Amino acid sequence: MRLSLRRLLVCPMCWSPLDLDAWRIDAEEIMDGLLSCCCGMRYPVIAGVPRMLSPHLLVDLERDYPTYFESYGDRISRLSHEPPPKARVQRRTQEAFGFEWTWAADYHATNFGDWLPKGLDHQSLFEGKVGLEVGCGAGRHAEMTAGVAKEHFAVDLSRAVDPAFVRTRRLENCHVIQADAMQLPFPKDAFDYVYCLGVLQHLPDPEAGFYALAKQPRLGGLLIVNVYQASRPVVLLLLESARKVTTRLPHAVLKYLSIAAGSVDYGLFIAPWRRLRSTRLGLLVRRLVPERIDEYTKHDFHTCVTDWFDRLSCPVKKHYKRHEVIGWYREAGYTEVVVTPYWKAFWNGCGKRAISDAATT
User: Fold this and answer.
1) Is the pLDDT of residue 358 over 50?
2) Cα–Cα distance between 159 and 278 in angstroms, integer?
3) What is the distance between the alpha carbons of residues 334 and 219, in angstroms, rounded to a whole number?
4) How far apart are CA 113 and CA 226, in angstroms?
5) Which terminus of the chain faces fewer neighbouring Cβ atoms within 10 Å, N or C?
6) Can you give the pLDDT at residue 360?
7) 92: Cβ–Cβ under 8 A, 6 or more apart, which residues?
8) pLDDT per position as a tens digit, 85-111
9) Does residue 66 register a pLDDT over 90?
């Protein structure tokens, strides 16, 4: 955590400014410390990342980072807090994605441009601007965006922030924060752009999550989101039937199950089609090949396996129709709304904030 981050961070509980105690500093990065609010909330800075979490998630930091609490136990009292009834679902989501993006930190699917509005690239969208990414995973998109942005803030709920911090540490304009999309530690109207790719559908209440994000861009700022499509009903039914079992498996077991699924998927379908697609026969049968198989010819086996883990592990997975996503933008007071398909699995949405928060419900 660089000192420059402190100017924009606020308490996600009451939006008050924070006091900072820095206990370990390395090359201008505050590696260990504590952020404190006048409301009584305390947020540890662990391994260079401020942990701006809700009280019921802060308590789990003691299990996730025991060395920090062993080292500074005399300076910070226990963060115990009684969790609300639905908090365990959020914790399971945090654990699933934390395991995934720590194990698969080198995930390198080159599809960032496919998630962005058609006809625009990250250079034209982000150059010279200050923005926020919610759901940064291991930081591959943050690294690209910070390369052109004036300043980029990357947030994730899970321990994925640890590899994201390592990946982007050399970029002085990139800040990594562990925080909840529903309670972000930033003032409203703080950013020129906000993007959230492949995350909202895993929140307990995706629509409420969208409206929380919609308050972050300045007037005229962009909000870019990506959610699952409510399409392919037979495929979704089969997948949801499998997920009733897989979401209850230990993550280490599910990792090997994902490797098995990826091996079948890649070995029997994707790799053969990759060899065939540019041949004369491939050109003749291309229309018969599922779009998903054709899409994965752009990626390697590791990407396929990681995506299988993603499908099978997350506790919450919701799907939406195009008019629903458009409705979110309009209800939040956004104009120039465009929602386009990314093959048959996702909706890419983009809109410009045009009016005040009074229109947001």
Assistant:
1) no
2) 41
3) 9
4) 12
5) C
6) 40
7) 247, 315
8) 566 788 888 888 888 888 888 887 778
9) yes
Q: What is the pLDDT of residue 355?
A: 67
Using the predicted structure, report yes or no on whether residue 359 has a pLDDT greater than 50: no
Q: Which residue has the tokens 């960032």?
A: 112
Quickly state the pLDDT bin for 356 (edges 50, 70, 90).
Answer: low
Q: CA 172, CA 157: separation in Å to the nearest integer?
A: 22
Provide the residue ranges of all domains of the chain, joining segments of one domain with +.
Answer: 3-83, 112-230+318-359, 248-313
Q: Can you name the residues that pair with 302 across neighbouring β-strands?
A: none
Q: Kindly state the tokens that stand for 122.
A: 């990250």
What span, in angstroms and rounded, lies between the C-alpha atoms of 192 and 189? 8
Residue with tokens 């309009």: 330
Whole-angstrom Cα distance, residue 102 to residue 189? 32
pTM listed for this prediction: 0.90
The architecture that CATH gives domain 112-230+318-359 is 3-Layer(aba) Sandwich (3.40)
The residue behind tokens 């660089």 is 2
Q: From CA 315, how far away is CA 240, in angstroms rounded?
A: 11
Residue 107 CA: distances (Å) to CA of 21, 128, 253, 309, 352: 35, 27, 20, 12, 31
